[in-house]
Amino acid sequence: MEDSKKINAVLFEIRAGIGGEEAALFARDLWRMYLKYFEKKGFKVIVYEDHRSDLDGIKTLVAEVRGENVYEILKNEAGVHRVQRVPITEKSGRIHTSTASVAVLPKYDFVPIEIKDSDIEIEFFRASGPGGQNVNKVETAVRIYHKPTGIVVSCQTERTQQRNKEIALQILKNKLWQLQQEKINAQLVQERRHQIGSQERAEKIRTYNFPQNRVTDHRLNKSWYNLEDIMDGDLDIIIRAFKEKEEVKA
User: Fold this and answer.
1) Domain segments of the chain as ranges
2) CATH classification of 117-182, choosing from 3.20.20.70, 3.30.160.20, 3.30.70.1170, 3.40.50.11480?
3) Considering the domain 4-110+197-249 in this protein, what is its CATH number?
4) What is the pLDDT of residues 177-212, one digit of tens each?
5) What is the pLDDT of residues 113-168, one digit of tens each?
6) Are the C-beta atoms of 187 and 62 separated by less than 8 Å?
7) SS3 of 65, please?
8) CB neighbours (10 Å) of residue 180?
């Protein structure tokens, strides 16, 4: 992965975990918290997917978030978040424990594919099929072998060797781009699994305890008693704590 401080776009995912409808409502509250934080930081947000429950809770939400150093800022938000509170659906006043997961995945901008001359072998041959006397008698068709990947592409649709070569190179670039995307997607799937695990309560990274007005980050072993402010987007207090910890380690 490239330097996290230079990644200015992420795919930000929130999914309801254990706890039924209350988990979906908690996921909605988390999204509201993050949205307020994004607004304070001036981040741009584009929502790609937003599946809601019967009570307007969030089952799954996927958004792109863009801003300077956004991955570096948000990376420690990834994991299972746990809430302890009396749900609005609870008639007996009992405190429930539910979860929602957050994934923060780097989003890479498209990088043009460059092909080195030393990485390819080009072969010219006679085109087959209809196409006129020139096409069938002159070696206008092109086949390109990409040595690093073993990909072979060819083109014989045009009447000139040069044009067929240009098309074949473009096809090769498209295939290499697709291969690159598949590798990135596989990495993202692995990273998502690493971040959220099975969404069980025991995997929590942070607990939001409403009766005690307390937010506890279990990785930092630290608590804050201003839950309402944090849920209103005041996340810098937690994010700064992680930065200070990293600076101490450095």
Assistant:
1) 4-110+197-249, 117-182
2) 3.30.160.20
3) 3.30.70.1660
4) 878 878 877 887 788 787 877 666 667 999 999 999
5) 889 999 999 999 887 654 444 445 678 899 999 999 999 998 887 888 899 999 88
6) no
7) strand
8) 14
